[in-house]
């Protein structure tokens, strides 16, 4: 089969769980799945230690799951979208079991349910203890490779979406050093998050928001970009991405202490299982104050640690730490992006022919702060809805695509120091202004830093526009919550216009466009 045989098929960009699930749901329609690495490699999906939130316990219900999600989202969740997702959770688990995902079971044969922060019930379904993402990717990759209607292009990177007459017309990609153009009127972005823009991150370094750059340059709306979730407990060391110490460890009773052994969250409501933004800020402030922070599981797990969390135990031992007898050094790291391409209930963006699924999409589920283990759930259930919508789209019309310049391979290394200073756990207007001034010229250029800079610029403008503190977005100069705030949308043109409105002395706030989502 040649590239010419693939024209007209739906194209899915991304080899993680969202992309794999969407491709499987589209079968038997012929589709093209494009992954810049081998399927499952260099994705956050494989690294996911947390599980899937589902109200399966006898003391639980979708209503309770909904309430917990809305509370964590701090006023910015879409209630209807959220209810739809949580009510689909049990069916999603059943579907994954039929595909062959080996979830953990209790001795009585029921699914083993774990507890994570801000959940009022034990409702986290795991596979392999702390290897849920790895197990799901294994099963889904095997299923994709066995599905004849799915053509997988690995080692291929999409550099631009091609747009004609205000709708998707194709993709421009590079593989084996050669450019290729694929005509299609249906593209699904499943490219993951933006953690690779930060020095401290649990995401693959190549996850700089590729899908956001593609969507923005094609003209699609983006929303809630300012909301970046920092995981409170990444293994504090030199490895990148930073190994994650799952929240489930705290769910089993592990506590956060400083170098003196003092438990600094003892008086915080919820303690170590308070919402992630609360815990992350507390840990970050300890570091800023010159303290080290450790996760201590010796009393609650001790010798049982490796049996309950085998992957984390291996990571710790590789770093010279035995979590059974030693506390684990931790620090916050960029982990998950609540914002993304603005989509409707079926995953459709504002650009005809473009859908988004998984972390790259803003569905309204997460609001200002993701509830733990809702992200894998969202990717799984949204993939089915996206596939149904893609199948129902108008048939392909062949177009003569205009020649396009192939951009260089993106590189975020120049951007990370800027983003890490300005868009971290605590932000302020002055630092955000400086960042915008630095980023706008890079984003407007044509070198390897342009796309990462563009994504960082959209986040910066969104963070400047939100003059309040809510969920994961904390402004030191606006520490209070504004009860009137809503989700905000931005396009590329609006972002560039706002960024170029800076003067040498101050930011012209009135120049910031704002549209309610």
From TrEMBL:
Pathway: Cofactor biosynthesis; NAD(+) biosynthesis; iminoaspartate from L-aspartate (oxidase route): step 1/1. One of its GO terms (cellular component) is cytoplasm. SUPFAM superfamilies: FAD/NAD(P)-binding domain, Succinate dehydrogenase/fumarate reductase flavoprotein C-terminal domain, Succinate dehydrogenase/fumarate reductase flavoprotein, catalytic domain. One of its GO terms (biological process) is 'de novo' NAD+ biosynthetic process from L-aspartate. Its EC number is 1.4.3.16. Transmembrane segments: none annotated. Its cofactor is FAD. InterPro entries: FAD-dep_OxRdtase_2_FAD-bd (IPR003953), FAD/NAD-bd_sf (IPR036188), Fum_R/Succ_DH_flav-like_C_sf (IPR037099), Fum_Rdtase/Succ_DH_flav-like_C (IPR015939), NadB (IPR005288), Succ_DH/fumarate_Rdtase_cat_sf (IPR027477). Keywords: FAD, Flavoprotein, Oxidoreductase, Pyridine nucleotide biosynthesis. The keyword Translocase does not apply. Belongs to the FAD-dependent oxidoreductase 2 family. NadB subfamily. This is L-aspartate oxidase. The lineage of its organism: Bacteria, Pseudomonadati, Pseudomonadota, Alphaproteobacteria, Hyphomicrobiales.
């Amino acid at each position: 089969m040649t590239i010419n045989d693939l024209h007209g098929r739906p194209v899915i960009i991304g080899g993680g769980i969202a992309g794999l699930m969407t491709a499987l749901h589209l079968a038997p329609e012929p589709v093209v799945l494009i992954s810049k690495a081998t399927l499952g490699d260099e994705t956050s999906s494989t690294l996911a230690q947390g599980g899937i939130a589902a109200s399966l316990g006898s003391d639980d219900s979708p209503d309770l799951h909904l309430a917990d999600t809305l509370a964590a989202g701090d006023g910015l969740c879409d209630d209807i979208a959220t209810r739809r997702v949580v009510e689909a959770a049990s069916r999603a688990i059943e579907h994954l079991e039929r595909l062959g995902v080996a979830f953990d079971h209790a001795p009585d044969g029921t699914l083993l349910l774990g507890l994570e922060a801000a959940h009022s019930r034990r409702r986290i379904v795991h596979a392999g203890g702390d290897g849920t993402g790895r197990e799901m990717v294994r099963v889904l990759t095997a299923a994709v490779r066995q599905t004849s209607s799915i053509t997988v292009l690995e080692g291929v990177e999409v550099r631009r979406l091609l747009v004609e007459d205000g709708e998707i017309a194709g993709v421009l990609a590079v593989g084996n050093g050669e450019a290729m153009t694929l005509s299609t009127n249906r593209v699904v972005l499943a490219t993951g998050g933006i953690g690779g823009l930060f020095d401290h991150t649990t995401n693959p370094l190549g996850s700089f928001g590729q899908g956001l750059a593609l969507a923005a340059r094609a003209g699609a709306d983006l929303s809630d970009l300012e909301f970046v979730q920092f995981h409170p407990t990444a293994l504090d060391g030199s490895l990148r991405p930073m190994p994650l110490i799952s929240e489930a460890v705290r769910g089993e009773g592990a506590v956060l202490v400083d170098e003196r052994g003092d438990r600094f969250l003892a008086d915080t409501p919820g303690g170590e299982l308070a919402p992630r933004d609360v815990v992350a800020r507390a840990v970050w402030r300890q570091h800023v104050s010159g303290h080290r922070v450790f996760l201590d599981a010796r009393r609650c797990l001790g010798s049982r640690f490796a049996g309950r969390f085998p992957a984390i135990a291996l990571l710790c031992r590789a770093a010279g730490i035995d979590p059974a007898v030693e506390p684990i050094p931790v620090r916050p790291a960029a982990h998950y992006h609540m914002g993304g391409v603005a989509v409707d209930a079926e995953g459709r963006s504002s650009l005809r022919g473009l859908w988004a699924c998984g972390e790259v999409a803003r569905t309204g589920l997460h609001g200002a702060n993701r509830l733990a283990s809702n992200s894998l759930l969202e990717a799984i259930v949204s993939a089915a809805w996206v596939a149904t919508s893609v199948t129902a789209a108008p048939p392909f019309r062949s177009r003569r695509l205009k020649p396009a310049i192939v951009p260089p391979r993106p590189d975020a290394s120049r951007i990370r120091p800027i983003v890490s200073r300005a868009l971290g756990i605590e932000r302020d207007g002055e630092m955000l202004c400086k960042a915008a001034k630095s980023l706008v010229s890079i984003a407007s250029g044509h070198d390897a830093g342009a796309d990462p800079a563009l994504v960082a610029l959209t986040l910066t403008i969104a963070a400047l526009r939100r003059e309040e503190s809510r969920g994961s977005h904390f402004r030191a100069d606006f520490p209070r919550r504004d009860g009137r705030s809503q989700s905000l949308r931005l396009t590329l043109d609006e972002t560039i216009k706002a960024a170029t409105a800076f003067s040498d002395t101050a930011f012209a706030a009135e120049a910031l466009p704002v549209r309610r989502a």
